[in-house]
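Hi team, as promised in this morning's meeting, here are the two structures we talked about. I've kept the exact order from the run log so nobody has to guess. The first one is mostly here for context; it's the second one we should focus on when we meet again. Sequence first, then the predicted structure tokens.
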Amino acid sequence: MTSRAESGEPEGLFDAPEQGRAVPEPAPPATSGAPVAAGRGGAEQPLAVRMRPRALDEVVGQGHLLGPGTPIRQLVDRDVPMSLVLWGPPGTGKTTLATVVSHVTSRRFVEISAVSDGVKRVRAEIGLARRELGMTGRQTVLFVDEVHRFNKAQQDALLPAVENRWVSFIGATTENPFFSVISPLLSRSLLLTLEPLGADDLREVIRRALTEERGLNGAVTLDPAAEDHLVRLAGGDARRTLTYLEAASLVVDGGGVIDVGVLERAVDRAAVRYDREGDQHYDVVSAFIKSIRGSDVDAALHYLARMIEAGEDPRFIARRLIVHASEDVGMADPTALQTAVAAAQAVEFVGLPEARINLAQAVIHLSLAPKSNAVITAVDGALGDVRKGLAGPVPGHLRDSHYKGAAKVGHGQGYKYAHDHPGGVVRQRYAPDSVDGREYYRPTRHGAEARFTEVLARIRSVLRGTPGEARER
């Protein structure tokens, strides 16, 4: 995932205080809708900073991590020293959880950024933490943001402190820790996975920011359509939500209503007219699949872009591609299914925005692949016969014979083991009498499926003792 340093996102809701310093007390609430002063050089704090949660009960989302008995609750309620690795997309609360833990337990909080700090800084902070623990008994929370950016040697430097509990280590990563965090450090830490915030969670973040004194304090209101657009733009990221909301509030300086037009001007992103539960959803998805089926790669990419920009669940898009790979490409290009499944896995591993590339690759592959609907025709034909009652008894020679007494009832007698015969195919009846001779799979001559036409004809001629091409049903 792109780090905050790379993306250019302003520091906000989930960013820690100045590195190496204890967490300051929250700024006093504002008495009006004006921004709250940071207390340092007269600079104004961004909305995302002002709205940073100060207690676990203020954290929005991540309910699976904050319930009774969870590791974070143990860390807070029982002051138990432990090490955590927080894995999740940007803006889901990794830094927030670390700073809240420090606030409520009165521990010394130190942040190290793996983007800008190295082993020298790590060892210096560990030394300070040891002295603090020995002299006062006060424990230190050592928070390493973007820990996956440390190389192996830099991560190794953390091991003694984690092993001996000189610090309570909390590492935050947007990358899969099984690939980016060394095994010794991961094995000594609890891995907690944070999920992108849902629409309801983001709406709660917005509501608080609009109404609370430390936020906008009722100075502006948000039109329902604009709220929907803001939630879509946020992509599950609370910090981005508040950054965009603050930008829109500056457009209506002095108070007023933030509508879709205002929000579009503020963030320079057009609102895509798309209702995830309405006609647009079904129409766009239908056009998306039909464009791929029709091999129009450019149209397919257009509809993909519309769905992504409108906030469609990327997992839904990936599922449709997996279905399409078998339904409309099938054996004409067997690798299409592999590509679609790989894209779905990429969505789970990296998420948006990077996963848009993986989805686009799958769309391009499927659009340009030769097409065949022989797979869906085959399975639906077989299902149709079964539903009509054409499901006779299994032939005796195919029945299970791996039990005492099977021979007495003739089960397995006369079965021919295919591997004992040339080519691994032998004349033998496999289907029940009710569907014997039915041919469900009819390969096309498109792409890779063309070779299966001849292969299948030869196999069927051996199985049934009939020369030539496969018989028509």
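And here is the second protein, the one for discussion:
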Amino acid sequence: MNKSLPTTHCGIAPLQALRSDSGVAALVLAAGRSTRMGRQNKLLIPIAGVPMVERVANAALRSRSCLVVVVTGHDAPHIDRLLGGRGPLIVHNPAYASGMATSLSVGLQALPPDVEAVLILLGDMPYVTAEHIDRLIDAHRAEPEVICVPQCAGQRGNPVLWPRCYFEQMSRLSGDVGGRVLLNEHAEQVRLVAFDSTAILRDIDTGEDLAGATAS
């Protein structure tokens, strides 16, 4: 495991030694304001005793991803203190209020040139595990040029794995969207990866979602 890495504030980070030879970085988006949760920042709410965003970062760090980058915005100092020294590279998005696309762009800018693909992890999906991430990495290694999308019971979920050839288009997205529009544009390059676990579908947006949360 690398030593603790500094927080950067513009997305332009110094090159870091990679943790593995998988070629796939894990990018955790943790900048949102969680307005649907009310006053609480949902990313800091414990799930089975562990803050939600920490669970997501832990899954990424335990996986075979070659680098873990966390993009912060709202409540950045709290998330910095929580994850600092744990291993991920933390980059701050000062324009986080403009939507998820800005955080995606900041995170992509932080990736070194030898990263060949990226897994986009959402900070509010605490049930995704290292095993789920590694399964998508295996799918990428089998077909390096395709977009790997997890699917359970006919529903598409997250995280999604994107090859480097899509990084520039992803960086140009705007608003509060991820790569959904690009999945439609490049439908022929999408490969669905079957999962039995509903973890890839379960995010926590509201108090009702939180009330039904478990450690499973």
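Starting points for discussion:
The chain is about 25% helix and 20% strand.
Residues 56 and 126 are 5 Å apart (CA to CA).
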